[in-house]
Amino acid sequence: HPLAGGVPPIRSSVYDGGFTSFAAFDLRSEWDSSVAMTIEAWVFRQDANRYETIVSHDAPGSYWLGFSPRLRFYRGTNFAEVATPVLANKWTHVAVSYDGALARFYINGQLAGTRALTHTGTGKLRTLLLGHDDSHNIDIGPRNRFMGNLDEVRMWSVARSAAEIGDGLYRE
Q: The whole model's pTM is what?
């Protein structure tokens, strides 16, 4: 798990906010096989006022998790967000658990808010991106590339419970 004192661990992925600073994963049907899903990540933001992508499956068509500058989750063309701030220069665990009707947001294992969220289905065959969104979604903002560090990005095709998110917080 990320080190105390705000120091990014050596093994975390560094994103400099540049156009080529992202990780891309090939097209796979598994990336969007279920409406229900959970996405988690440890984030170390350099600027808490930026519009930034953590995970994108080509929003607004499929799903997206990031900051706008609030913690925001898209499932299709619709989104939900919470006002709880995720500060800069501090390791923070963020998660969204979506069951097809409600998006539950967690910050450091604590429920930060629950929002109703409709979706536009599954089955989109797109590239999965970390730290960047290729769709140029104007809702997300003009600067959507992540600037900072990401670690232990995890995805499930089920809506995980608060207990499951809390139990896995410091496990690799």
A: 0.87
